[in-house]
Design goal:
The protein is α+β, with helices and mostly antiparallel strands. The chain folds into three domains: 8-66 and 203-210, Alpha-Beta Plaits (2-Layer Sandwich); 70-147 and 154-159 and 171-198, Pseudouridine synthase (2-Layer Sandwich); 230-284, PUA domain (Archaeosine Trna-guanine Transglycosylase, Chain: A, domain 4, Roll), CATH 2.30.130. Helix content is 17%, strand content 38%. It is built from six helices and 18 strands. The protein has helices at residues 20-31, 101-109, 132-137, 176-186, 223-226, 237-244; strands at residues 8-14, 36-39, 47-54, 68-77, 79-81, 90-93, 113-117, 126-127, 130-131, 147-160, 163-171, 191-201, 204-205, 231-234, 249-250, 258-263, 266-275, 278-284. Strands 1, 2, 3, 4, 7, 10, 11, 12 and 13 form a nine-stranded mixed β-sheet that branches. Strand 8 (126-127) and strand 9 form a beta hairpin. It is elongated and about 70 Å long. It starts with 7 loop residues before the first strand and ends with a strand.
Length: 286
Amino acid sequence: MSTSMESGLLLLDKEAGMTSRAVDNRLQKEFGTKRVGHLGTLDPFATGLLLVGVGRGTKFLPYIDDSRKSYLATLKLGETTSSLDPDTPVIAKKSVQSLTNGDIVEAFSSFKGKGEQIPPMTSAIKVNGEPLYKAAHEGKVVERKPRSVEIFSLNLIEMKDNLIVFSTTVSRGTYIRVLGSDIAERLGTVGYLTSLRRLSLGPFLVADAKKLDAIGKEPFIDGTLAITTMKHVEIDEEDLNRARNGAPFDLAEDYGAKVLLTLHGEAIAVYRRFADTHYRAERGLF
């Protein structure tokens, strides 16, 4: 892997046993920069697609479409843990009735569409400035507000020996651990995820990702093309300094709430609509 200062976006296939933060720390050392961040944290037990920004690439992360994420998960029925995953001991058991594939598919159908979830205590969401997982480690239980989520698809892959393998596509902010636990409850028992793999995040696929140890010398993807949430408006050389200095622009038409200003197809800055066709700088991407 290159040890010189590089910059851009990486598609990584995270392995089990690593935190997403540990991946960032590893890349900080490899690329010689503290400017490393990721979009969409994966729990330590989870594997699959992790989108990482390095150097300038970190500026692109807030503007990348992560509104839909797809996963492959294995749910174990009859036992549960405090974290709803295999990283904590089993704390409760409950018998599992005889289930058919039809029973599971019927239960799945009740979760599709819009709904609410209560985030697990072992999550990174902050309440009163403190991540929930820190409170959980101290034995605290913090009141959490339900969050709006949407389940776009939920499909049974296989059931064998109280293990349900399923795939799902969900909205941003959906916890598959909680979904698994809720499915188990709907089936009259308890359950936790024994495995979880992210298959996609927005337009990106795990099939295009590389393992951390396999990152090559030129591993970055084009951050400009990765921004699909707004119109790309090309400026000329004369306007480059204006954009770099954050000067306002009166554009030719209303391009929406935000636009990406580009020069020769390369991202320069994100501008926000202030009124009609008048746009003001939100963030430079140079």
